[in-house]
Amino acid sequence: MGRFRGVFPYLVSPVDGAGKIKADVLGRLCDDLIKAGVHGLTPLGSTGEFAYLDREQRAAVVAATIEAAQRRVPVIPGVAATTIADGVAQARAYERAGADGILAILEAYFPIPDDGVEAYFRAIADAVDIPVGIYTNPQFQRSDLTLNVIARLAKHPRIAFIKDASTNTGRLLSIINRCGDDIDVFSASSHIPAAVMLIGGAGWLAGPACIIPRQSVALFNLCKDRRWDDALTLQRKLWRVNEAFARFNLAACVKAGLQIQGYDVGDPLPPQAALTTDERKIVENTLREMGL
User: pTM (2 decimals)?
Assistant: First the structure.
């Protein structure tokens, strides 16, 4: 089973006023990202507003992404559910649609004990024949993955990678030390990608890469070639985007940035709010300073 490496933008989900996915807009974005050199595409991540879409909309986003990719790069959709049955059903549906991998997310209303968390991810990996990534984001999830659970899941033959959005880089090094080659570690936008690559990361899955794909790929290549001085120089420059986006709703920032770049992706789905005029100017000024 192949291993994923590189920059995987978290795609936005363009939705029109009637709730229909704008497949043409999403397709154009995917095509441009692939031409910019990204290594894969991830629909239905946090930036894709998965929590605000219904089942039909989610399926339409995945189908449009797979259609646009045309097998040029792997497509790894997010699967998010509160129940094992729903998570398994989504994963199987996306595999049938042509997905190359799954990024599994556990939503929880009540806290879930460790054995329940492990059972959720294990059931999804048992249900498909494609690589599965596990996603952990303590800021938004009521039930996090402990290091012991991660180490046990890493032994599963189809659980291939983890995306950790804990903001705790030491935790990433602990995962790498504990799990070795059993699982690859991907950075989130809450981490500094070059720092994660330095300690042994495989790349990053993040929304800002939608806005700065070429620069993100250049950073990955510098890290891959171990040109750390050049990588850190570029990383300092790119970090301005992360700083700006961290101040507001991430999906609203990425959608605003894409609108500024000419993509009719619309606003974030209610009850989320679009950026105010002043907030949008901050994003616009950040992109202008980056030469975008």
Answer: 0.96
Structural domain harbouring 27: 6-226
Residue 271: asked if its preceding bond is cis (omega within 30°), the reply is yes
Q: Tally Cβ neighbours within 10 Å of residue 201.
A: 24
Asked whether residue 239 is domain-assigned, the answer is: no
Task: Please answer whether residues 258 and 30 qualify as being in contact, where contact means their C-beta atoms are separated by less than 8 angstroms.
Answer: no
132, amino acid identity: V
Q: What is the mean pLDDT of residues 109-116?
A: 92
Query: The tokens of 44 are what?
Result: 């239905």
> Which pair of structure tokens corresponds to residue 270?
């209610």
111: domain CATH number is 3.20.20.70
Average pLDDT over residues 49-59: 96
Q: Write the pLDDT tens digit of every residue in 173-212.
A: 999 999 999 999 999 988 999 999 999 999 999 999 999 9
Question: DSSP 3-state assignment of 45?
Answer: coil
Which residues, listed in sequence order, are joined to residue 163 by a DSSP beta bridge? Answer: 135, 186
How far is residue 292's CA from residue 213's CA, in Å, rounded to a whole number?
11
Average pLDDT over the chain, rounded to whole?
Answer: 95
Total structural domains in the chain?
1
- Please enumerate in sequence order all residues whose Cβ is within 8 A of that of 269, keeping only pairs 6 or more positions apart, or say none: 13, 15, 49, 52, 53
Q: How far apart are CA 133 and CA 125, in angstroms?
A: 9
**Residue 95: what pLDDT?**
98
Residue 277 placed within a domain: no
Residue type, 126: D
